[in-house]
Amino acid sequence: MTTLYRTIFGSLRDSELASPALTDDAQTLTYGELRTRVQAVAAALWARGLRRGEVLALCLPNSAEFAALFHGALLAGAVVTPMHPALSESDRRWQMEQSGAQWFVDADAAHDLLHPGDAAALPSAELARRAAELDAEAGPDDLAVIPFSSGTTTGRATGVRLRQRHLCTNVEQALPRMQDLGLRPEWAMLAPLPMSHIYGLTVELNMALRHRNHILTSARFHVSHLLDHCERFGAQWASVAPPILLALRQAAQDPETRRRLRSLRVLLSGAAPLDGELAREVSRLTGAQVVQGYGLSEASPVTHVSLPGQEDPAAIGTPVEGTEIRVVSPEDPQKVLGPGELGEMWVRGPQVMDGYLDGSGVDEDGWLRTGDLVRVDEHGMTWVIDRAKELIYYHGFQVPPAELEALLLQYPGIAQAAVTAGYDEQGEEYPWAFVVPDPGAELHPEEIMTWVAERVTPYKKIRRMDVRAEIPVSPSGKILRRLLRTENRSHVRPLWHTGPHEEDSTP
């Protein structure tokens, strides 16, 4: 077993040092330059007093700085908890408190660490020597990353404990499947998804660096960035989510745009369920294979990837090497179901976390309950049918209903609140709230949604609200979100939102 630094940078050959590693909005770094920056960050953090096992919150957009700070912090012995820069102050404080973060790195701090001044700069030979010493102290069982996930509940996100071995193993599990789909080391890769999310972190950053791809990324997603990168660098593959495929489908109606996308060979979709017809249409317009992966923060994240020549792009493929799955009855978890039967998927493998920060999440035999309802055929081909955990996926981001419901109940005049998924014209989800007023109270949805928007991270904003006389609940008082969700499928337009959908900006 090894560490991420050894896996990615320790294995660099001299012939690879001059190859481009990452291009962002401002610069291109070669593999040699990126390795030197990683070593410099580790030395700078150590000089400032960071010690092995301390938690560092990394709050940066996609950039060369993110790559250098993430891997440099790990090399220094830190445990990194990544944060999306759009997180609200409340969510930042929550993550800092829950993870026990002692260090916080944003854009200003990153600049200081990467540009220490001539007096603090060290020769490259000294950086390499110190890096070797630091890495020699690291091991596969070291805690490495604490991403936050809503897990198998719909409550507020909680930290996931991922060790060096979990991350290294998942890179080595996913890479052969991508190679089977045609991925080559010389390919350039579009990386529009946030690297602060475990999908972007593992697939866009770690796996791409391990495979010696040229990563093309921007701080904020815009279709024009993808088109420019395809033209300038001949990008052959991309990690995407369904909203990005929707944007590509719309853009590719134009013949000139299709010409600019002609270099693409493989589009790997994840973070949310992929509609089969959308996949086929994007493939037809771009000429690229559109394939799907599946994973969870709790599994580092990849558990499934499509197979070459797979007939149905709506299937998530089969488990990657070393991964076991079990389908159990939602009513009786002791009952294991057979091929074709609908049940909750459990997963087990070397990439699965030890547990959440509180120690829960994995049973004594190593099984993780995904909360997703699936059907699996006799060959292991898997289809996700629904999500038992009722999370809303807005542009690939998880929105926990219970968090918004708890906030709504703080608003004067609201007696009951429920939040579930609404669906727009393309079938994509957004948060839709239902509220019941106190007797005699008059509620104004626009005012309430503005109030909520001022208190949450942007992607958690409520996009539609209905005032109604009652909310369906079970005899025990649990909100029956599945009934509301079924109702919502017949309505496709938000009545109110804060502006145009944010495909072209930070969600």
From TrEMBL:
A Pfam family this chain is assigned to: AMP-binding_C
InterPro entries membership: AMP-bd_C, AMP-bd_C_sf, AMP-dep_synth/lig_dom, ANL_N_sf
Cell membrane keyword on record: no
AMP-dependent synthetase/ligase domain location: 19-357
Keywords in alphabetical order: Ligase
Stretches assigned to the AMP-binding enzyme C-terminal domain: 403-478
Gene Ontology MF annotations: CoA-ligase activity
Domain of life of the source: Bacteria
Family of the protein in this entry: Belongs to the ATP-dependent AMP-binding enzyme family.
Protein name: AMP-binding protein
Organism per entry: Corynebacterium uropygiale
